[in-house]
Every structure is written in structure tokens, then in C-alpha cells.
């Protein structure tokens, strides 16, 4: 087993929508990661 990623991004395909999965130990950790992604993206 290797390390578990924080984010898994799937670009989708024909008939499958793109999807982002944010992984964490609990909902608060997932929310914190989502906020950090938003901050980095929007400056």
C-alpha cells in the first residue's frame, strides 16, 4: 500500500461526468481541504 492522496480527480468520459473526490479522516478535514483549494485557486 502506498500513501492515500488528498484529492482524486476524474476527467470523465463519454456518458460519465467529471468528478473530484476530496479525502479526509472526517468531514471537518475534508471541508478544510476544500476551502484551501478554493483559496489557492482564487488567490
Plain-language structure description:
This protein has 43 residues and is an alpha+beta fold. It has one domain (7-42). The chain is built from 1 helix and 2 strands, in the order ββα. It has one helix spanning 27-42, and strands at 7-10, 19-22. Strands 1-2 form a two-stranded antiparallel sheet. A hairpin with an 8-residue loop joins β1 (7-10) and β2. The radius of gyration is 12 Å and the shape is extended. The protein starts with 6 loop residues before the first strand and ends with a helix.
Average pLDDT works out at 95
Number of strands: 2
Helix content: 25-40%
H-E string: EEH
Low-confidence stretches: none
Overall 3D form: extended
- Total of helices: 1
Major beta sheet, strand line-up: 1-2
Provide the β-strand percentage band.
Answer: 15-25%
Concise synopsis of the structure shown:
The protein has about 45 residues and is an alpha+beta fold.
Amino acid at each position: 500500500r502506498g500513501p492515500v492522496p488528498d484529492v482524486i480527480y476524474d476527467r470523465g468520459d463519454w456518458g460519465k461526468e467529471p468528478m473530484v473526490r476530496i479525502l479526509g479522516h472526517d468531514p471537518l478535514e475534508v471541508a478544510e481541504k476544500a476551502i484551501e483549494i478554493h483559496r489557492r485557486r482564487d488567490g
